[in-house]
Design a protein that fits this description.
0% of the residues lie in helices and 52% in strands. It has 81 residues and is mostly beta strands. The chain is globular. The N and C termini lie close together (10 Å).
C-alpha cells in the first residue's frame, strides 16, 4: 500500500515456487527481480538497456528503496494492482 516502501529495502526470495508482486499504480521503487528456472512476466511498462535475461533491475516511478523479489525454481510476475 502507499506510494513507496517505508524502509531501507524489501527482500523476498524463494528456492522452489513462483513469486508474485502487485504494486499500486503510482508506486515508486528500485526493483530487482529474477529467476533461474522459470519465466519473467511483467505487466508494467519498463525500459531496459542491453540484453533481456532472467534477471532485471529497473526503476518504477521515481525509483526509491530496493524491492528485491527473486526465485530459483519458478516464475516471477510483477503487475500493478
Amino acid at each position: 500500500a502507499g506510494d513507496r516502501w517505508d524502509g531501507a529495502k524489501l527482500d523476498a526470495e524463494t528456492s522452489n515456487g513462483g513469486v508474485s508482486l502487485r504494486v499500486p499504480e503510482r508506486y515508486s521503487a528500485r526493483v530487482e527481480t529474477g529467476t533461474v528456472n522459470g519465466n519473467l512476466k511483467l505487466d508494467i511498462p519498463v525500459s531496459v538497456k542491453g540484453d533481456i535475461s532472467k534477471r532485471l533491475s529497473f526503476d518504477l516511478g521515481s525509483g526509491g528503496p530496493m524491492v528485491r523479489v527473486v526465485t530459483t525454481n519458478g516464475g516471477v510476475t510483477i503487475r500493478r494492482s
